[in-house]
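Supplementary Methods, section 5.1.

A reviewer requested that the exact input to the structure prediction be made available. We therefore reproduce it here, unchanged from the version used in the analyses.
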Amino acid sequence: MKIIPLSEGTFTIDQTKKFVPFDDSAEDLKARPAGSLLVEIQPFVIISSQDILLLDMGLGFEINGTLQLHQNLMNAGINPSEVTKVLLTHLHKDHAGAAGIERAGLGERLSLPNARYYLQRTELAYAFEKGFPSYITEELECLRNNNQVELLDGSGMIDSYIEYAVSGAHAPHHQVFWIREDGKTIFFGGDEAPQLQQMKHRFAAKYDYDGKKAMELRQQWWQQGEKEKWTFLFYHDVKHPVWDFGSSK
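The structure derived from this sequence is encoded token-by-token as follows.
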């Protein structure tokens, strides 16, 4: 399997939940509002023998009129129409901002025309119940009543090689994924396994729905991953987007 990180850049986020671009070569993090977090926004492509998978979808920003996700895919040599599956951990705006696309005369539609989108049924319902600022519901309308969207109920398998499980620690209906092929396991934990340092140390975050559960899950996954030589994908890690226990030290 081939892994391609699709970095959208580094941002700071504070209690307003606004993502503000940050250039560490020219800016001082201490000058940002107190409590600002520094995060990468980084969807991933996995090319398997069966699919071109996209794991979460970024902020949905545009660059010169082109969806940044589309541009990043094309920069990686992938036409957006070639993506076959989208695996969504949850629908917070920094993970699902590019789910839909709206262009003059075309109306609202999914941004990847030939992909099947996988998300938890309860997460979609909760997003519309909870709303702003964590969820931008107008950007998620395209996921409702759409035959390209498969709403999952609980834990299970997709095409015999993608396992999903409801974890419910960062958000009540958050899910995580294991992609297994040719004896290799790639683990994507979204915001419950967002950065390398959070996996290595006991860390409970105030921004998680259940911080204690998230901390315990990270420890469980990290120990199992070390034993079974998983490859971890870290959506919010500035320096370590991919950590492979088969080769990393």
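The helical segments are 68-75, 93-96, 121-130, 137-140, 196-200, 211-228. These observations are discussed further in the main text.
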